[in-house]
From TrEMBL:
Annotated Glutamine amidotransferase type-2 domain residues: 2-249
Keyword Transferase: yes
Name of this protein: Class II glutamine amidotransferase
Tree of life domain: Bacteria
Originating species: Streptomyces griseorubiginosus
PANTHER family, sorted: GLUTAMINE AMIDOTRANSFERASE, GLUTAMINE AMIDOTRANSFERASE YAFJ-RELATED
Keywords: Glutamine amidotransferase, Transferase
UniProt keyword Transferase present: yes
Coiled coil, from the record: none
Source taxonomy: Bacteria, Bacillati, Actinomycetota, Actinomycetes, Kitasatosporales
């Protein structure tokens, strides 16, 4: 399984400064979740695309990871540490976040069969897939839906499509757009992973500090009172323009 971390700040900052006290403990999680890492970050207001940096080694001890955290100035970012599903190669094409235009997407969990969404994905998008993961298919389904729906509905509907067609452990994910960072929480508490790792493993939590909003998987310090649990099958929206936070049922 993987680990997710998202941040939105009031003004562009080096990522290490934006993440603050979470920088070291999140990096340490890569000693277990060590099958690559990725960062997608918006450098500030205006158009364009998020900057993307990826590696296929463990983030812990990877100079490129450290360089990206120190040298990337951003006001919104998604970070991902990968633990590859059995049988899926550790290659750049399978490394999150997946990106397209002004979108970046990262997933924590798995569903099976991995191609269960293929008939619901625009054929042109499916043909251009860069890797072989179920997670990228999740993103391609979201992209297909975004042609007619807003990000909140697209995430919820794509997850519902998976639940109707596949077995899964977790559908937790982050979607970064030009306007906002979105987080979706969903898990199967009866999956083998949930039973083995415990009820907190797939929790997504978020906190607002005034000048930043964070959303993170379990494994980093999340003291009670400062962090709120994102309820299952709900979408957290964090606006980039004013740090407005809303949870959509």
């Amino acid at each position: 399984m993987c680990r997710l971390l998202g941040v939105v700040t009031r003004a562009p900052l080096p990522l290490a400064a934006a993440l603050g006290e979470l920088t070291v403990p999140f990096t340490e999680l890569s000693r277990e979740h060590g099958d690559g890492w990725g960062i997608a970050a918006w450098p500030g207001a205006g158009g364009g695309r998020p900057r993307v940096v990826k590696g296929i080694a463990s983030a812990a001890g990877d100079w490129l990871w450290e360089h990206a955290l120190a040298g990337t100035h951003a006001d919104a970012a998604v970070l991902h540490l990968r633990m590859a599903s059995p049988g899926l190669p550790v290659v750049p094409g399978n490394t999150h976040p997946f990106t397209a235009g002004g979108l970046a997407f990262a997933h924590n969990g798995f569903f099976s069969p991995y191609d269960t969404l293929d008939e619901l994905i625009d054929p042109g998008l499916l043909a251009a897939a860069g890797g072989s993961t179920d997670s990228e298919r999740f993103f391609l389904r979201v992209r297909t839906l975004l042609r007619d729906e807003d990000p909140v509905d697209a995430l919820a509907r794509a997850a519902a499509d998976i639940r109707a067609r596949a077995s899964f452990a977790s559908l937790n994910c982050l979607l970064l757009t030009e306007e906002a960072l979105y987080a979706y929480a969903d898990e199967d508490p009866d999956s083998e992973v949930s039973r083995r790792r415990g009820p907190d493993f797939f929790r997504l939590r978020y906190r607002a500090d005034g000048d930043r909003v964070l959303v993170a998987s379990s494994g980093v310090p999340q003291p009670d009172g400062a962090w709120r649990v994102l309820p299952h099958r709900q979408v957290l929206e964090i606006r980039r323009d004013d740090l407005g936070v809303r949870v959509h049922a």
